[in-house]
Amino acid sequence: METTNFALVGVGGQGVLLASDVLAEVGVEAGYDVKKSEVHGMAQRGGSVLSQVRWADKVYAPLVGNGEVDYLVSFELLEALRWLQLLRKGGIAVVNDQRLPPLAVSSGGMEYPDSQRIEKALSAATGRYKIVPALAKAEELGTERATNVVLIGAVSNYLDVPEEDWLKVIERRVPPKYVELNRKAFAAGREL
Amino acid sequence: MKVLLSGNEAVARGAYESGVVFASAYPGTPSTEILENIVQYDDIYAEWAPNEKVALDGAIGAAYAGKRALAAMKMVGLNVAAEALFYSSYTGFDGALVIVNADDPGMHSSQNEQDNRHYARFAKVPMLEPTDSQEAKDFVGLALEVSEKFDTPVLLRLTTRISHSSSLVELSERKAAPEERKPFARSPMKYSMIPGFAKRRHPVMEQRLKDLAEYAETFPYNKIEWGDRSLGVVANSVAYQYAREVFPEASLLRLGMSWPLPKKLIREFASQVDKIVVVEELDPFLEEQLKIMGIEVAAGKDFFPILDEFNPGIVRDAAYKAGLVETPVEVQKVETGELPPRPPVLCAGCPHRPIYYLLKKYGLVVDSDIGCYALAVLPPIATTDTLGCMGASIGVAHGINKAGVEERAVATIGDSTLWHAGMPGLLNVVYNKSNTVTLILDNLTTAMTGHQPHPSTGRTLMGEQTVKGDFEALARAMGYEEVRTVDSLNLKETEEALKASLDSNKPAVLVTRSPCIFMYEERPGLYEVDLERCNACGLCFEIGCPAVIRSDEIHEKSGKGKAEINTILCFGCSVCEQVCARKAIHAVEE
Which chain A residues have a beta carbon less than 8 Å from that of B165? Predict the structure, then answer.
């Protein structure tokens, strides 16, 4: 199989690391060699977060550089732009339709990029991008915390891995009382 | 069975499988999770020591006692433990010792970038370098075997990308650890390093290095992977993985033991390829050794950067510039315009924030230390003048005050950092009588590395109840007369105590105490702005809380945006309410 490189980006506290754990384990479940790489930042919350996952018959490097990512999964609109350089030509971007203004915007003088600028940058980078209402879907299910699994569901549509493998890993990774909620979140993501 | 493990988890598993019975460390990114995972294995005694030197001394003691021991620390932690590394290199052990050291190329979470391979050469000890999690696990056992065979401590060097990347690992069972207690192998001439005895140990150590160099020739992870012989790549650690991707056809020599080097193997490799390229992160350590051996290096640090960590793109880019590969990395030019940065910030409700608000107000010189509060260097707080290493704050403030500046210098240091390396500096201030005020920012945990217990939390790593160290009693025992304690979140009380400490013009300690927000089960409250009362004066923005934001509602007279509180981020610390002169901020019922 061709190597598949994923980059998951967002803001600390959004559940990026759990989502990349799921993606890595699904790769193992599907029979690939897998590597996952992340950096634990200086602060507990609020910073920009990047995690990378690679699937292949044999993976060497645990991360890739700019222009080498096949799937950019962004939990937040501004962060999608920040990490867009990672995407390879023709790569796919799945972006959660959520704005989390950083301090430089909320109390500083900087502007959060408007929708037009976001769409323009995304479409210039790839014809294959999708802004999905993952947060809204999670809120419909009762908690914004399920946003990460909705996004995983949305990404799963592009990948040739049986649905059971995804659900098996999700069930393993979340506390028992949240299994049903996350199954629904995954299903909601697949419909996006 | 194969499972996905991070490098740090794999080291912990390796310690378990290879019969380690004692493990000690001080938390530090990227090495923290090693001990956090080791503690899950009941067969290993595991502890957080107050600092890395204490951790290493403890592990050395356990190895003297005939057991297999492990000490773990981050890159700069080995600087703290260096003195212990050097004496243990002279003494060796009856048991075995592996020192796991996680370098941080790229300084994701460190104050300087350093290449700790130099320590292996400097202290004349062997160093092993895994390239993935499987090797990280296996190398713990190998390191202990080398330690036993050659009577030496062994450095196991990880980097951030080895520690914090996950790959598949085959698990094995634990080898039986020596359970029996035996008499201490008394040997003062071997273990007591007075100059006369150390002089006898030094030649033993030099001979050991020669023996280890012979062993390096057969070390299974010093390995040639033959390919196209027009190019020979020498690589170590995670750089090997990048080199394997960028040069899939080339012949490759990976060095799993980076000190001492297998010179015969290197010469054999060099003699059979047309040109040699060295791919290594940070310093030209291997490159210089090859050059000393008279081997010509076609591309080394002149192409592969000395700064920052690598990734395959960086290696490919350097290789392209060196004329070693034909295709450059294809990176699209993406036009995003200027993006607002998102650096890490002190959490909303963080008890460290109010004291910096006051320090800014008083225009003091602030000498700070290692911890979450290091974020006070950056806007919006931007109230830190110097920050060096663990414990530096107090000594630096003392020096500035003794030298004399117009403003007063104060030290800010966290609870865990004070126990780690702050005590001697604190003693120096009172002993040598400077008017330095030391602010101990006590949030009752080691917050930055993920809330580990420390000597005043009353808990150990293994979850036992224990004594609680007492900063106020410590200061008094050192001779401080000016010792005060306040609630960090009470601005008025803190300001009065800060003024009194400064006005005393004596050595003073002010403990500002309130738990880290992660110690709460749920947030204690939530605040909101009464937009009728708010006159957009901006006082509440001065505290730099991410939950206090500018609303879209404009105050007519001033034309400025009024304040608003983000209900998701607000933790209910009440500090914005305390600074609001218009009484426009109040608690809401949740």
Answer: 35-38, 62-63
Domains held by chain A: number: 1
3-state secondary structure of B429: helix
Which residue in the set B342, B380, B541 is minimally distant from A48, CB to CB? Answer: B342
Q: What is the pLDDT of residue A41?
A: 59
CA of B311, closest CA in chain A: separation in Å?
A: 6
- Band (pLDDT 50/70/90 cuts) for residue A3 is very high
- d(CA A33, nearest CA chain B) in Å: 7
Which residues from B are below 8 Å from A46, CB to CB? 342, 344-345, 347, 546
Identify the CATH homologous superfamily for domain B353-518.
Thiamin diphosphate (ThDP)-binding fold, Pyr/PP domains (3.40.50.970)
CA-to-CA separations, B446 to A19, A65, B578, in angstroms, rounded: 27, 33, 27
The CATH number assigned to the domain holding A110 equals 3.40.920.10
Q: What is the mean pLDDT of each run of 10 residues along chain B (590 residues)?
A: 95 97 97 98 97 98 97 98 98 97 94 97 98 98 98 98 98 82 92 98 98 98 98 98 97 98 98 98 98 98 97 96 92 88 91 97 97 92 96 98 96 98 98 98 96 98 98 98 98 98 98 96 95 94 90 91 91 97 92
Q: Quickly tell me which residue has 């947060």 as its tokens.
A: A135
Domain with A130 in it: 4-190
Q: Which residue spans within B62-112 are E strands per DSSP?
A: 68-74, 96-103
pLDDT averaged over every residue in chain B: 96
> Which residues of B296-408 form beta strands (DSSP E)?
297-299, 365-368, 386-387
Using CA coordinates, name the residue in chain B closest to A46: B344
Of B85, B79, B53, whose CA–CA distance to B423 is shortest? B53
Where does CATH 3.40.50.970 sit in chain B?
A: 2-174+189-218, 353-518
Prediction pTM value: 0.97
Task: Closest CB to B167: pick one of A35, A107, A112.
Answer: A35
**Percent of residues, chain A, with pLDDT higher than 90:** 83
Identify the closest residue of chain B to A66 by CA–CA distance: B331
- Which residues of chain B are within 8 Å of residue A61 when distances are taken between CB atoms? 238, 241-242, 244-245, 311-312
Buried b (16+ CB within 10 A) or exposed e, A149-166: bbbbbbbbeebebeeebb
Cα B476 to Cα B180, B394, B510: the distances in Å are 44, 17, 12
The CATH topology of domain B527-587 is Alpha-Beta Plaits (3.30.70)
Q: What is the architecture of the domain spanning B222-321?
A: 3-Layer(aba) Sandwich (3.40)
Residue B245 to residue A61, Cβ atoms within 8 A: yes
* Range(s) within chain B of domains with CATH label 3.40.50.920: 222-321
Better-predicted residue by pLDDT, A43 or B273:
B273
In this prediction, residue B436 carries a pLDDT of 98
Are A62 and B347 inside 8 Å of each other by CB?
A: no
CATH fold of B2-174+189-218: Rossmann fold (3.40.50)
User: Is pLDDT above 80 for A8?
Assistant: yes
pLDDT band at A165 (very low <50, low <70, confident <90, very high): very high
Contact B4 A107 (CB under 8 A): no
Contact A34 B330 (CB under 8 A): no
Chain B: nearest CA to A43, how far in angstroms? Answer: 5
Residues carrying CATH 3.30.70.20, chain B: 527-587
As to burial, measured by CB atoms within 10 angstroms (0-12 exposed, 13-18 middle, 19+ buried), residue B467 is: exposed
Q: Is residue B307 exposed (0-12), middle (13-18) or buried (19+ Cβ within 10 Å)?
A: exposed
Would you state the pLDDT for residue A40? 65
What are the backbone angles phi and psi of residue B68, rounded to the nearest 5°? -90, 125
- What is the per-residue pLDDT for A45? 66
A124 chain-B contacts, CB cut-off 8 A: 334-335
| pLDDT in the model for residue A46 | 77
Which residues in chain B are contacts of A36 at CB distance < 8 A?
4, 165-167
Interface test with chain B among A18, A44, A81, by most B beta carbons within 10 Å = A44
User: DSSP character for B420?
Assistant: I
With contacts defined as CB-CB under 8 Å, which chain B residues touch A87?
332, 334
